[in-house]
Amino acid sequence: MIFLATIFLSLLSFTKASSTFSPARPPAQPLAVKSPYLSAWQSAGSDGGNGGYLAGQWPTFWAGQILGWTGLINVDGATYSWMGAPLYVPTVDQISYSYTSTSSVYVLSVEGKVQITATFLSPITPDDFQRQSLIFSYLNVEVVSLDGGEHDVQLYTDISAEWVSGDRNTIAQWDYGTSGSLSYHKVYRQTQLAFSEISDQTEYGNWWYSTTTDNGYTYEAGIDVDVRAQFGNHSTLSDSVNTDYRAINSNWPVFAHAFDLGSVGTRSTSRLFSIGLTQEDAIQYDGANGVVPLPSLWKQYFDDEISAVSFFQNDYETASELSSALDRQVQSDSAAISNDYATLTTLSLRQAYGATQLVGTNETQYVFLKEISSDGNVNTVDVIFPAHPAYLYTNPRFLKLLLAPLFENQEAGQYPNRWSMHDLGSHYPNATGHTDGNDEQMPLEECGDMLIMSLAYYLASKDIDFLNSNYKLLDQWTQFLVDEALYPANQISTDDFAGSLANQTNLAVKGMIGIKAMSVIASATGDSSSASNYSSIASDYITQWQTLGINSAANPPHATLAYGSDDTWGLLYNLFGDKELGLNLVPQSVYDMQSDFYQTVNAQYGVPLDTRHSYTKADWEAWVASISNETTRDMFYSDLAKWINETPTNHALSDLYDTVSGDYPDGIFFINRPVMGGVFAQLVLDMGLSP
Ligand SMILES: *[C@@H]1O[C@H](CO)[C@@H](O)[C@H](O)[C@H]1NC(C)=O
Ligand SMILES: *[C@@H]1O[C@H](CO)[C@@H](O)[C@H](O)[C@H]1NC(C)=O
Ligand SMILES: *[C@@H]1O[C@H](CO)[C@@H](O)[C@H](O)[C@H]1NC(C)=O
Ligand SMILES: *[C@@H]1O[C@H](CO)[C@@H](O)[C@H](O)[C@H]1NC(C)=O
Ligand SMILES: *[C@@H]1O[C@H](CO)[C@@H](O)[C@H](O)[C@H]1NC(C)=O
Ligand SMILES: *[C@@H]1O[C@H](CO)[C@@H](O)[C@H](O)[C@H]1NC(C)=O
């Protein structure tokens, strides 16, 4: 089988013109990635992807199900497909694929006659909440002559109803409408299921596929093969809507826009499309006043859905400028470290933001985050923690708004345990808490995470009110750490898939850094006696920890995975908090020792997470890299960049992979998790936070 597959693949690559990929060929290419529900990708890795080509394969939702999204073009009377897999027409050739932090750009050639540049822009505007609150993404298609001649060109694109439900037997309904120059198809689930998901797709709200009308515009909603054949044979659509509302998979209804571009020469012409979701209410939330629905934040800025859709469609110029400015910032800050590092950050930013959503009102705003793929939990503390460098670097306030609902719920007495809760609800979008205290328990992990992130936010913002209003809870968690951090009980850490363990060296150091963080918080808020008490406890613990958790007789010496297990080791990523916050709790000699040690245990695609398995975590590798010496740092980043280019995984960036094969470890598929925001750790250190 393997032999046959190899022959087949090489035949394919022989017959197909090959594309370049810059700065890398990611396992899946982000197309429209803006929220847990607007998350469309093009699968590339060899486990099932086509190598990274826009044509010849359907885009998929992050969880793998097909999202019909088609591009056709007629050039001098012949039809070709440039996106998706309507198999009856030839595909265009792909010249290049490139990505930035906010866009994916495909350059395509139609028989060397006409060039198509398809730009998928998912804007990220960290401190412009009006724009960030819109769950929409652009597709801009530019066409120009490649051979210098004039060509007769018509452009076509459609979406299927697969976007509106995770169950393909669900009945969809639709409308076509206009508002000024806006033309839209609105598609939705006929029976709305509020706050529900099927296969991680949302089951309520309205989907919009829009364009700006121009000369030669036509539209149609109907049966997929009929609508596409209409375009292929007649070069225009029928301006009609088939209203036989039916199941998504029954004669597959599609929603199409077409433009007759006329004669296209060396002067390019472009058409703009946008795709997105509106939901009036976004989250069910157990805050201070019991469970209430929270509205999507875009509702504060727009009177109705059409105004929001219209604004987005007409905002391309500004959205592009803002996104390009962010692209340039991430690129230049990252390239100052290395090009390999920039490969990581630019691919991860959309994924980090794409798990979040702005909700609430102008008075009370929140950010909610879905623990995508691993379990769907809401605002999981130990998922926000690895991801938080991306938010801290782009806008510290975003981090505050992620933490806010966790504090509010617990301060209202909705969580009975003395340690921090793990998450705010078992499944997005129900942030209904855990009044019974039976969440997945990682007590030491979450207390340390909350303290470290709270101080990080304060140091970046100087928002003393935040510390004052949450002081009591922060102090309660610190007391828990004082009791538990020196000799951690048998428990799981955030790496729960690796199993539970007593006396975890890495978990202990997080607790100690958390106690030290609280001493800075106490000092900032004027509680000087607690400040000195916690500071001396943290120092005392760290001194003991250097004996308990380090095998100094080994050659080379290294921290152990658990106290007294001399032959074990792991990525000591929790040291990052000490450097991030400028605490100087842990002696530099420990960093140097670890940095030297990692060089001796590096595998094909990186350093394993610990001695129990050959897999690793990309986010934690990046944390460790940021606090290692430059040689070790570059080793980590170059292995990660190599892994991105070569991994056979074919879904949105996994944070968990095997360091030898580069594939998913047996049976664990982590896909599209926001924790990849952890690659921004290095840029957070560049912020130079200190008490
Ligand atoms: C959220 O809660 C509602 C009931 O309020 C339920 O119908 C829905 O299925 C839940 N959603 C998820 C994703 O569990
Ligand atoms: C023209 O129409 C026929 C019949 O509907 C269809 O099979 C064919 O694919 C169409 N041609 C193109 C180029 O779309
Ligand atoms: C919310 O604030 C924005 C300005 O930041 C303003 O344009 C909008 O009207 C406000 N919305 C409401 C409902 O007050
Ligand atoms: C220091 O803090 C610990 C833990 O909260 C507490 O038990 C102890 O009494 C405190 N010591 C002083 C001197 O305040
Ligand atoms: C943790 O380590 C200490 C010191 O080696 C030991 O006394 C204790 O039993 C260990 N805890 C557990 C739960 O194994
Ligand atoms: C980093 O540490 C390694 C191992 O000790 C050493 O070989 C290398 O020269 C160091 N690199 C830098 C830039 O100091």
Descriptive notes:
The chain has 691 residues and is an alpha+beta fold. The chain folds into two domains: 3-316, Beta-galactosidase, Chain A, domain 5 (Distorted Sandwich), CATH 2.70.98.40; 370-685, Glycosyltransferase. The chain has 18 helices and 29 strands. The strands form eight sheets. A nine-stranded mixed β-sheet has the order 1-7-8-9-10-20-16-13-12, with helices on one face. The chain has a six-stranded mixed β-sheet with strand order 6-5-11-19-17-18. Helix 5 (316-335) packs across helix 6 (339-353) and helix 9 crosses helix 12 (505-524). The longest helix is centred in the last third of the chain and has 21 residues, at 528-548. The chain starts with a helix and ends in a 6-residue tail after the last helix. The model is unreliable at 1-15 (pLDDT under 50). It binds 2-acetamido-2-deoxy-beta-D-glucopyranose (6 copies). Residues 338-683 form the Glutaminase A central domain. Keywords: Signal.
